[in-house]
Automatic annotation (TrEMBL):
Gene3D superfamilies: Vaccinia Virus protein VP39. It comes from Subtercola boreus. Residues 203-215 have a biased composition (Gly residues). Transmembrane segments: none annotated. GO terms for molecular function: S-adenosyl-L-methionine binding; sequence-specific DNA binding; site-specific DNA-methyltransferase (adenine-specific) activity. Pfam families: MethyltransfD12 (PF02086). Residues 189-202 have a biased composition (Low complexity). Residues 189-220 are annotated as: Disordered. Keywords: Methyltransferase, S-adenosyl-L-methionine, Transferase. It comes from the Bacteria. This is DNA methyltransferase.
Amino acid sequence: MPDRLRPLTPPYLTAGGGRRWADFVVGHAPAVFETYIEPFLNGGAVAIAMMERSADSTFHLSSADPETVNAWQVIASDAETLIAHVREHRDRHDRAHLVAVSERDAPAHLAGMTPAERAARFVYLRGGTDRDGSARQAVAFDEANARRLSALLQNRDVRFEVREFFAIVAQVAEEDLVYLDPPFSGGDHAADPAPNAAAGTGTAAGTGTGNGTGTGPDSLLKEIRSLVGTVTARGASLLAPGPPGGGPAAVYAGWNTMALHADRGDGDTLWANRTLTRAQRARQAKE
């Protein structure tokens, strides 16, 4: 199939939230929204699909991890330099090189890199590391996809920002759509590779895994529940993937602000806030 016909996918390897999931979410999202807000940016599969469908909307994509945000900014502004640097890593790829690159995570070392070099390090660690932390046989990185994604980002009103997820309360408004995909969900953050596991450190700074200020799952859930309540009170719509196998999904079921919105039938579910479910019922009543 020619590259131009292939659906766009995340710019680097992620374990969860592929294009099939993104298309499922888009199919159950509001047809029109003012601003799309994603405060747990990772692979961005849903954001990409939304951009392809909604050319007139604004997109605010953020993460608490500066390396994730930097990677997206470079993909948008300087894809060719990024591709050149990733090629250099790919040509030298083996376990020793992967470990050496993963260990260059000290703030002082990252500060000495250009944005494109930092982005290439991030992309390489994602594409060169297997789920168990070992070196993949080949680096996963689609250059044609990166170029096409860069073109899409340049043709949309997209804003990237490093911030904690709850900071979106300062901007969210009626007619906005929030896609909430926290680390415990079944979306982009499901079982991501651990780039620094090759160096024997598990996950580490600069790999795009950190969000939130709490000290554990309970604290994160409380913060997210508060955020959902605020988003709903503002009249904005919210969608969130439900993690497979229960867990936090059972917590969503106990919230009066959330309800099961769609079930794909394979264990993956999509939850919505009260604003969106009420709008859906109103549309169904008119039909």
